[in-house]
Write a structure and sequence with these properties.
The protein is mostly helical and about 130 residues long. It is built from six helices and no strands. About 20% of the residues are buried. The N and C termini lie far apart (about 40 Å). It is globular. Helix 2 packs across helix 3, helix 3 crosses helix 4 and helix 3 crosses helix 6.
Length: about 130
């Protein structure tokens, strides 16, 4: 089973967004050693409510039977485990940093705009779930 866990990778766009977030945080002196963890937590934090919203949209009575906390905590834990195995497990994040390391500063700025738009879209999609559930 360990071989399978090593071989799984997130889609390229998510690896790219990880790299852009990593390069943001890498610029701060206080974040030099923890930039990868902060980038992973940022992506996890954005994707948890998004996953909750998607599950709520496709709900066929499963989630509505549970109260809010019985739904949020397991989804947050599942998303956290998913991001752990996609980014952190056996230092996979280092491979992703090497994959996009050749990007110039201009390309990273463009990626920052893409990441901002992606985060905004994810937030707007999950906005309905967060405030109106």
């Amino acid at each position: 089973m360990k071989e399978w866990l090593v071989r799984i990778h997130p889609p390229k766009y998510l690896r790219y967004f990880f790299y852009i977030a990593y390069s943001w945080y890498r610029g701060y002196k206080s974040e030099r050693n923890e930039a990868h963890a902060t980038a992973i937590v940022l992506l996890w934090f954005v994707h948890t409510p998004l996953l909750l919203r998607v599950l709520h949209a496709f709900n066929k009575g499963i989630i509505l039977e549970l109260n809010e906390y019985q739904t949020v905590y397991p989804i947050a834990i599942i998303t956290g485990l998913l991001f752990y195995y996609l980014f952190w497990y056996q230092g996979k994040w280092r491979v992703y940093v090497e994959e996009f390391k050749h990007f110039k500063k201009k390309d990273r700025r463009k990626g920052t705009v893409y990441l901002f738009i992606y985060l905004l879209i994810c937030t707007l999609i999950s906005f309905d779930y967060i405030f109106f559930y």
